[in-house]
Structure formats: structure tokens, C-alpha cells
Amino acid sequence: MPYIASIGTYLPCWGTPQRRVVGEDEDAITLAVEAGRAALGSGAPVEYVVLVSRDLPLVESSNAAVLLAGLGLDPELEVTERLGGAPATLDALSSARPRTLIIGVDIEPAGAAAALTADRGLQVRTSARVARSLPVRTRNATGIVHDYGDPRLLRERGYLASLAAAWVDTPVAVAGVEHGLATTLAAGASAPLPTMGASAGLFALASMAESETTGILVGVEQASLSGIAVANGRTEIHRREPAAQVLTERIFVPGSDIPISLAAYERAFDAKVRWEAGKHAGSDELDFPPRYHIGADGALSTDYELVPLPRTGTVYTEVTVHIPVPGLKTPYSLVIVELDGVGVRALVKVTGAEPGAVDIGERGRLVLRRVAVRSGVPDYGYAFEPDSTSESGDKADTEAA
Prior knowledge:
This protein has helices at 28-39, 64-71, 86-94, 151-166, 179-185, 200-210, 262-273, 387-391, and strands spanning 3-10, 14-15, 20-21, 48-53, 78-83, 100-107, 110-118, 122-130, 137-139, 145-147, 173-175, 215-221, 224-230, 235-240, 251-252, 276-280, 293-294, 300-301, 304-308, 312-321, 329-330, 332-339, 345-349, 363-374, 377-386, 398-400. The protein is an alpha+beta fold and 401 residues long. It has 2 domains: 3-247, Thiolase/Chalcone synthase (Peroxisomal Thiolase, Chain A, domain 1, 3-Layer(aba) Sandwich); 251-276 and 308-391, no CATH class. The strands form 7 sheets. Strands 1, 4, 5, 6, 7, 8, 11, 12, 13, 14 and 26 form an 11-stranded mixed beta sheet that branches. A 5-stranded antiparallel beta sheet has the order 23-22-20-24-25. It has a two-stranded antiparallel sheet with strand order 2-3. Helix 1 packs parallel to helix 2. The longest helix has 16 residues, at 151-166. It is globular, with a radius of gyration of 22 Å. 41% of the residues are buried.
């Protein structure tokens, strides 16, 4: 029987209060990192990671390296990537070993949530699992979606038939469907959920924990169903849910794509994605990006260690680019950030705020974002998110009993 030590949620700042959309520099991995880092705010150890989504950026490769780097976890940890929706995430949760980080991610509507299991906390256990075939909506290998478009069939032979086959009590919360339908399937009024896919069940679990609600939580997707029984217990809730902003249109000038050099990508990966600086033996200075040193005797020093950099800082200077740049949406803002306590300044783009909205002296945090897609490969780095964005709507961390 798994125990949940903490739950973290993340919503992009763009869209409406009812439906969030990803920014141009966000994808399933950046959303997963935000939710995962929120859940890890408890400081509990992690030994396994499970990522559930239907929108994984890399299908024929692995997303594990970027995910672990962004989370700041050991690159040798076991990572399982699952293709699925709400039932798949609840299945992963109910069968997880202690010290497992389970992350569910959705792109439309956008949001991510993560739960960290432990030896004590909020108790959950498997209550139902039904696997039936009713492929109302399909997506092939090239990404083409076909929707059969029969909501009555989906309701009568999908959700309702699976609930009847599950032989469970009336659930107190249902994830994976629109709020109006969820209220008819559940007992009593349930909180609206921002997503309907892999993360929906974890958002529902966070709401149940906050309201101290126990009972059956069900995740459905077409005709598949998974249910967990939520009992009493204490868990931490960490929400990163800034207030919604309208994503404004920007100018895009087509241009030649910059091809990727996989050799350079691999060489810079750890320092760039793990947000680390180089430190040479006998020196207290940090180099970002890491680089070789030439000693007083003219000898070249190539041996340095990578050390983590702070993820908070202050804007030292800023500029907003208005002239259209081929391949980039314009305008956009760049800042040089003075990182806290290490004497390092970094040049990064601004995210989560309108161009020109960030001023010198503003505080913020460094967040993993997709900086480009080159030769079909997503390239990740860090961007500056001002505190004014997160403070405008972040819900305070809570501890649910």
C-alpha cells in the first residue's frame, strides 16, 4: 500500500483560468520538471521516476536524461516512461514502491502534477482496474488524430459501462473527463480539474488531500478505468499555479534552421541542463559556461569539476529585441542575471512575462525551458522567470492531513 509524502502541481501562466496553454518554450518535459521540483520541495529522497504522458517530445529516443537533469536527480536513477492518460498515472501510483516520483503531464489543456511516495503519508491502494477497448479517439505514428465523434457512445459504452464493470462504490472524484460529466459520475460536488489526461488524477488527489476527503478516486480514458482508494494520512501540497495571462501574438519571420551538432550538444549537456558551473582545482572562481584555464606557467588546465549553480538571482541588466529575427518569435527579452551568492552572471531569455516587463533589480528564478528545436531535436536550457509572475497566482504550500 503506497503512501504519498508530497504532491506538486504546475500550470503554465498562459491561457485562461479554465484552460491553460503551453508557452512557446514549454513542452511535456519542462512541465514535468516544474511539477516534479514542486513535489521534491519536501526534501524526501527519490530512487525511481515514472513519467506518464501522451505528448513525450522524443519517442524513438529517451527523455530520461533531460528529465533527471532538470530535476537535479542522479543520472543513474531508474526512469520509466509510460504512454497513457489518467488511468495509467493512477495505476503507476497505486503500484509504486516507496521513494518513487510519479509525474503526469498534459499539453492540451496544459498542466502537470507529481506525487512522491514514501514509507508514511497519505494512504492509497488499488480499488479497481478495467481494461476495455473503445477506440473513439486515435492517434497514429505520424501524429494524425482521428476522432469518431460520438459522445453518447463514449458515455454509455465507455465511462458508465466501465464503472459498472469495476464493482466499486460511487467515486468521490473522477479524473479524465470534463467537469460537467465528472460531477454526474461522482458523489457530491468535486473541484474542477485543469486537465483531462495523465495529470488529472494527481490534481484530483491534491484537491482531495487539501479538503481532507477520503474515498474512491477514479481515472478514466475512453473505456479504460483505474481507481484508487484514498484513506487518511498527512501529505504536503506544493502548488505552482500562477495567475493566467493572455498569450499575445508575436511576429515570426521564417528562416533557415540552425542545424544541431550532436557532438556539441553532448559536450555541453550536463553544464547547460543541470545548471552547473566549472570549478578548477585550487581556484574559488566558478566559470559558466565551464572552460579551460591557462596557468601562470602557460600550462593548459582542462580538469575541472561541475558544481550546481543557484536557481535564483537578480536582473543585472535587460534588453528587449523588437527587430524580427529569422526563426524566432519577436519581440522577446534577454536579461543578465546575477546569481545569488556565487559571483556568476548568466545571459538568458525571459519566460512567463510579456516582453519588456522585467526591470533591472527584479528577483526571479531560473527554470528549465526548451530553447530551440534543431534538426528535430529539442534543445533545453534555462530562462529567467520573474517572481512577479509566480507571486501573482501561486497558491501557498499547504500540508494536508
